[in-house]
Amino acid sequence: MRTVAIALTSTAVFFAAIVLVVVRSAGWPEVKQSFFNGAEFRSSFPGIASGFLTNVKLFCIAEVVILAFALLIAVLRSTPGPVFFPLRLLAILYADFFRGIPTILLIYILGFGVPGLQLSGVPTSEFFWGTVALVLVYSAYVSEVYRAGIESVHASQNAAARSLGLTHGQSLRYVVVPQAVRRVIPPLLNDFIGLQKDTALVALLGLVETFRQSQIDVAGDFNFTPYLATALMFLLITIPMTRFTDWLIARDRRRRQVGGVTA
Amino acid sequence: MRKVLTAVSVLTVLVAFVAATTATGASRSAAAIPGCAPSSLDLVKSGQLTIGTDNPAFPPWWDGQEKKGTGFKTSNPYSGKGYESAVAYAVAKRLGFKQSDVKWLAVPFTKSYAPGKKPFDFYLAQVSYKPVRAKAVSFSTSYYDVNQAVVGLKGKPIAKVRTVAGLKPFRLGVPIGTTSYDYIVNYIKPTSKPRVFDTLNDAVTALKNGQIDGLVVDFPSTGYITAVQVPTSTVVGRLPNQGKQEHFGLVLSKGNPLVGCVNKALAALHTDGTIKRLEARWLAGSAPLLK
Hints:
Radius of gyration of chain A: 24 Å
Number of strands of chain A: 0
Shape of chain B: elongated
Low-confidence stretches of chain A: none
Order of helices and strands of chain A: HHHHHHHHHH
Number of helices of chain B: 8
Number of strands of chain B: 10
Largest interface: A-B, 28 and 34 residues
Low-confidence stretches of chain B: 18-29
Radius of gyration of chain B: 19 Å
Largest sheet of chain A: none
Oligomer: heterodimer
Distance between the termini of chain A: 41 Å
Shape of chain A: flat
Helix content of chain A: over 70%
Strand content of chain B: 15-25%
Structural class of chain B: alpha/beta
Largest sheet of chain B: 5 strands, mixed
Structural class of chain A: mainly alpha
Distance between the termini of chain B: 32 Å
Strand order of the largest sheet of chain B: 7-6-8-5-9
């Protein structure tokens, strides 16, 4: 009881001290007016919220494609035997390359470069190329997550499956990948939180999504409060997702422990 | 190709002309403004007028050969060439500063209105006055009354548009932080959302690539775009003013008393015809006004 009281008091004193230092600083009135402006927040919020729908659409499409594409890369990378070496090499090169270059550069290169070729039939849509860039980069990350999952499944599982007469493909499909995916759901969701935030980078191509909308408002009114509104939009979606991930991990642990006791 | 050559030769002639006129301008002494002597002003660095602008700074607002060491790309604010550089030096001279007392700083647009101590005495980069903006910074009076204009590719459907309403079906783009965006959203109201780019350069690239049909910028900026950056483009037309005349003002930190002296200097430059003369020299050109 006493420790709780001490913890509460010290927390209160700590945060009160920070607030005091900020609020009593010479520049506070100016900072308050330009970062914490109620009127500005209210006027910019509807536009920022509707811009966020574009982000949601973007990451929903990207996540579905990434889940499939990254699994393909991870499976290619875990193909056995010398014959499939070229496939493994391709998968390795892919992951190295797209994890290695900054996302922002890839968005620039694809979004302005490819339409610049003026090839007929090739889309010029900024939404399209922004999504492609994010899919390419995040598939590289997610494929590594999958691979870690696949490698974490004990080799005896695969051996047992093969001894029952399953082919390598069947063993992957029915034995290894289902276990692997379950294990990597938390890091997978972690990557998706990263992806959701990176959708703001597509603004670079001229697409007016939530971040660009806030930039427009900031530059239009010389007031930084709209950035707070955008931050809030992202938190509204990433925090529940983080909590959900934690819950999944806890549930999975519970289930496995139950299984361990009864088996 | 011929177009580019003509444009280049026109520029060369202009540069020579200006070099000649600034030389004569320097010898003319301006009447000092009472209460605004450089020594009495509260400046970022005393005895020196520190002026900020964006980098790269484009013609016709800025001109002159890029110079190593200044940090500025595409043009050289120290040259006194280009409309804004010329206006800034004219203001400095009115206030009683020598040409060598002026120091230029590359300042990103966002930094010009961020809270906190400003690194410049004033900032100019085609910043339009808006009442809501004046809550964060102090603006001088107008040094240029601006009209927006639309640039499109030659031979494309947008090039034939003659009315503001005719722009509705097109994909329009703007650089971020411009009042051109407000104009599109409030008065053109296109069927597809306007694209908003980080820089004028990105917007110009999108126009060149056909990712947008029309680029909306202030009219004087269209000259450099159509002559140098995208020779296949043309000015579709100027956009008529809606409501109050839009103008550019010098940006100062909120409540900076220097604004009084700067305004007096600008008033004098308007009265003696300097502003008009500089406009004619740097921002000449015409295009049909859309109805």
